[in-house]
Every structure is written in structure tokens, then in C-alpha cells.
Amino acid sequence: MSWGSELWDQFDNLEKHTQSGIEFVERYSKFVKERSDIEISYAKQIRNLSKKYQPKKNSREEEENKYTSCRAFLSTLNELNDYAGQHEVIAENLTSQIITELSRYLTELKAERKSHFHDGRKAQQQIESLWKQLESSKRRFERDCKEADRAQQYFERMDADINVTKADVEKARQQAQMRHQIAADSKTEYSNYLTKFNQEQNEHYYTLIPNIFQKLQEMEERRIERVGVSMKTYAEVDREVLPIVGKCLDGMTKAAESIEPKTDSKQVVESYKSGFEPPGDVEFEDYGPGQTMKRTVSETSLSNSRGEAKERPGGGKSKGKLWPFIKNKNKLSLKLGSGPEDFSHLPPEQRRKKLQAKIDDINKDIQKEMDQKDALTKMKGVYEKNPQMGDPASVDPRLVEMAMNIEKLQSEVQKFEGWLAEVEGRLPSRSDPPRRQSGLYESQNSNSTMVDNNCAQDRESPDGSYTEEQSSETQVKVAIANTPEFDDEFDDGDEETLPTIGTCKAVYSFEGHNEGTISVTEGELLFVIEQDKGDGWTRIRRNEEEEGYVPTSYVEVFLETNTKDS
């Protein structure tokens, strides 16, 4: 059905209807814009969530990534990050394919609508102007006819009156004839205006207005079609990312299926196995008059593992140590990862792994240097054959430097391989019968040796165990075999949380790359839990789970009053 023929008299309603259509497009565009904003906000929250649970550098979470369950969780976080990216794609496509296009189309639509209604109003004004002219000529014709009738009646009265002169009668007759002529002219003019108006009116209602309304109808149909296309695009934008979203979900499922409980259990053994043998039987010592029974330390005795306390000579109690690593003196070096170069402070099995990892790293460096050397050698050969490309002698200093680096690295490998051979020679075989280990762990010049515990004096060491008299050259520490109290930092498993003794403010930023340290940002406020003992390090705490050492010169310490007095 055509608007031009059916709605010829609904100009005002069509104007309202088309305006309502434009407002609908604007409302739909606003809806899509808000959906796009929601997708951007959602993607941002998902990315922040993924980032929040990513393992922090040099943290316990990063260390745990050797377990399949932790790696699966990390893969899930990475897939979740990609999943968030697809929501950003949805927002981007909604903006580019719908919002931007509709905004441009609305501008064109408003201009076209304005043009059509301008033409309609112009045609309406034209027909109204003709109507006014017709009405004016009609009233003039009516007035002139009445004037002619009055003039005729006046003439007839004058002609019938015998007292009126012939001159007056003639004058009245001429006046009547003039009025009749004016009326005839007005009639002709009225007839012409009527004919013209009927022609214009017919043109208006059967040609001009139908054409304008037909254009408005076509414009409205295009608007409706455009809205339909936008709604279809709205669905397609979501559909396009479904395959990638599905791959993200498949990745999460695959990560979950990759979890292997047995492998993780085996990894626990690999991580914490010390390499020490279980203790053998304790020898019987008879008591004799005047003799003092010698004190020996069972590094894995049940009494020590139960945490029995011994009285110190100066009073007070000390917990039994289960490992040959004295925390008070060695704790800082172990935490900071700055122990002996040969890792002699570690149990045999852990030491072997560290040495093997170090050898592998150095071999990678050697291979890298050799590859670079080969490339430079080939470049030198090219220069020798084509001197215009470069001076062969310019490469020689770099080749010499690389050769020295390779020689140095190879020397390092030999050194670490020697230590590795030493450790592998000491590791017990599973088929060997249990034997009693020495109760003393001697450390000198980064090389560990075992000494006879039967010569120990009846004296307790600061860590709660009995040791022999120490010379000025040899520091003797108690060696204890494999127990559940051994952790990554070789601290007591039942160590209590240290109390806060003050606060500090970071004067400089410090990146704690080594184990046991903690990163701080300039201006950050933290809690002090252990003062500098003269080694240049202060122990601080950020929260219940984050604590570590920072250089004392990097922080400004504010100790509590009672701490300063003590």
C-alpha cells in the first residue's frame, strides 16, 4: 500500500511517525553502546582477576609451578586472560560495525527526512496561497455583482421619476452599465482563479504529495531494514568469537585433565629429599665410677623430632635442631641465596640438583657463546673474501673475547662437575644397610666433612645440641638427618611468627630477586620484625604472608620505645 494514495491527508501524523522512527534508532544505538561498555568493563575485571592470581616473581607460588596442579591453574589463568580478550573484541566490533555506522546513518536519515518535509510544506503553502487568491476573487466578484444590482435599481428609479432630468437619467444609466462591466470582469477573474486552483489542487493531491509521501515511505522502509541488519550484526558479533571462546574453554579442560597426582607426589620427593641415610642403632655405653658418659647427638632421634627442650648452661631452653644448619648464623645467607658457591650448605640430594642445574645453565651459556663465535668466524671469512664489505681485523678482538669467555665457562663447568662427582660419590645406595651418621657437621672453606661425635664435650651449643670444642679455624655445626622439619629455607618447621618491633619507610626502591629478600617501593611503609645484627640487613614484614630481608641502608627504621630501651 502506498502512503501517497492512502495517507494523502495525514501529513502531520507521518511527520510524528518518522520522528519516532529516528528516536528508535537512537535508542537502539544507545543500547548497543551500553552493551559495549559492559563488555569492556567485564573484560577488564577478568584480566585483573587473572593478573591477581598469577604467581609472583621469586615467590612461593612460582616455586609451586613445578606441580602439575599449579601449572594447570596457571594455564587456566592464561586461558582466562585470552577469554577476556574476546570480550574486548566483542566491544570493539559492536562499536565499529553498529554504533559508528548507525551514528553516520542517523545523520543522513535526519537530513533526508528534513528535505522531504520541507518539500511537503512548500507544496502545502503553495496550495493554500492559491486558495486565498480564489477566495479573494470570489468575494470581489460577489461585491461587484451587488454593486451592479444597486446601480441598476438606481437607474430604474431615476428613469421612472418624471421629475428627474434626462441628464441625470443618462448618468445613472452609464453608472449601471459600468458596474455591470466591472461585475463581468470580476466574474471572469474568479472563473480563471477557480480553474487555476482546481488544476493546482489536483496536481497537489494526486502528484506532488503522493511523490513526497512515497519518498518518506521508502526512507522509513530503509530505516527499518537498517535496524534489522544492525540487530543481525549484533548477534553475529557474539557468534564470531564463540570458536575462540570454545578453544579457551577447551584449554581450561585440557589443563585440568593434565593434572597428575602421582607425578606431583613424586615431585615432592624430588624437592625435599635430602640424601641422608636413616640413623642406625645407638651403641651402648657402660657407666663406670669416675667416668662421665659422653654426650652424642642423634640428629634424627625421636626425642628431638618431638621438640624436647634442653636446658642451656646459662638458663633457658632451646629447641632440638633436626638439621645441620644453624639458623641464627646461616639463616641470612640461606635466605638471600648467597650460600657457598658449591652449595655445601645443602643436603646431598638437594646439593646434587643445584649443581646439575648450574652445570646445565653454564653449558647453555657456552653453547650461546660458541654459536656467536661461529657466526663471527663466518663473517670474518666473508670479509676476507670481500674486503669491500668490511675489515676482517675488526672482528678479531671480539673473537678473542669470546674465546676467553668460553674458556672461563668451561673452567666453571669442570669445577662444578668436580663438586657434582664428589656429591654423587657420597650419596648412599638404596641397597646399602643403614649406618650410624656422625652427630657433627663440620663446615670449613665451603667443604663439609664429618667428624667423630664421641669426642664431643659435655657442653651445649647455641642451637640446643652438644658439640665438640670449636677451634678458631673450624666452625662445627650439628648435622641432623632427614626429618619432616626440613623446609625450603632450612628453618625450624615450628618457628613462631616474630613480633613487630617497629616500623620503617623505604628510602629507595629495592628489587628482591634473591630468595629470602622482599621487594619494596620507595616511600612504602612496612613493619620491622628483626633489627640489623651488623650484617647490613633488616628483616621486615608487609603482611602475614610477605616478609623478608632488605638492605638496612635502603630503609629508615623507627623502633618502638621499649625496643630502643632494651
Automatic annotation (TrEMBL):
GO CC aspect terms: cell cortex; cytoskeleton; plasma membrane
InterPro entries associated with the record: AH/BAR_dom_sf, F_BAR_dom, FCH_dom, HR1_rho-bd, HR1_TOCA, SH3-like_dom_sf, SH3_domain
Compositional bias ranges of the Polar residues kind: 293-306, 440-456
UniProt-listed GO biological process terms: endocytosis; signal transduction
Disordered, as annotated region: 273-322, 426-474
Coiled-coil regions, chain positions: 352-379
Domain REM-1: 345-422
Chief place where the protein resides: membrane
One Pfam family in the UniProt entry: SH3_1
Ranges of Basic and acidic residues composition bias in the record: 426-435
Subcellular localization(s) per the UniProt record: Cell membrane; Cytoplasm, Cell cortex; Cytoplasm, Cytoskeleton
Domain SH3 intervals: 499-560
Keyword entries, A-Z: Cell membrane, Coiled coil, Cytoplasm, Cytoskeleton, Endocytosis, Lipid-binding, Membrane, SH3 domain
Entry protein name: Formin binding protein 1
Taxonomic source organism: Oncorhynchus kisutch (Coho salmon)
